[in-house]
Amino acid sequence: MTDHKPVTIVMIEDDEGHARLIERNIRRAGIFNEIKHFRDGSSGLEFLFKADAGPVLNGPALILLDLNLPDMSGTDILARIKGHEVLKRTPVVVLTTTDDKVEVQRCYDLGCNVYITKPVNYEAFAEAIRQLGLFLAVIQVPEAAP
């Protein structure tokens, strides 16, 4: 039998206030998985792709992604995640201030699972996260082979 560990939530969000609100609402929804917060795209990608044993050693179950980052476009990050053989199955929730229909469609075309415009309706967000919590409660990531 394989040992499993709880999955991690990866948040790539440069605005500290938004990050705290998002985390508070995730906790309020009863989800206590570890949240790894990155303030720019480069460090988020570094975590996702350059782990010791290669991509997704850290096994994120969910990626919360802002599109407007100081160092790169969130859509580029989304394309990299969804273009990767292992990471493409990871749910990505885009949380951003952009409600441009073309941008929203582009994110869905690239493979995002949910697109939420900030300022977020946090009741709706908490409910979506609660639903996701049921998913996170049953999904486990296998430990890396020794």
Your description of this structure?
This protein has 146 residues and is an alpha/beta fold. The protein has one domain: Response regulator (Rossmann fold). Helices cover 40% and strands 19% of the residues. It contains 5 helices and 7 strands, in the order ββαβαβαβαβαβ. The strands form 2 sheets. A 5-stranded parallel sheet has the order 3-2-4-5-6. A two-stranded antiparallel sheet has the order 1-7.
Characteristics of this structure?
7 strands; 146 residues; single chain; two-stranded antiparallel sheet; 40% helix; five-stranded parallel β-sheet; Rossmann fold
Present the secondary structure layout.
Elements lengths: L3 E2 L2 E5 L3 H13 L6 E4 L2 H9 L10 E6 L8 H9 L9 E5 L4 H10 L3 E4 L4 H17 L2 E2 L4
Parallel strand pairs: 2-3, 2-4, 4-5, 5-6
Antiparallel strand pairs: 1-7
Helix pairs in contact: 1-5
Brief description of this entry?
40% of the residues lie in helices and 19% in strands.
Termini Cα gap: 14 Å
The CATH superfamily label reads Response regulator
Estimate percent helicity.
Answer: 25-40%
> How many strands?
7
Number of helices: 5
How would you state the average pLDDT, rounded? Answer: 80
**Largest sheet descriptor:** 5 strands, parallel
**Beta fraction:** 15-25%
Q: Helix/strand-derived class?
A: alpha/beta
Give the name of the CATH architecture.
3-Layer(aba) Sandwich
Topology-level CATH name: Rossmann fold
SSE order? EEHEHEHEHEHE
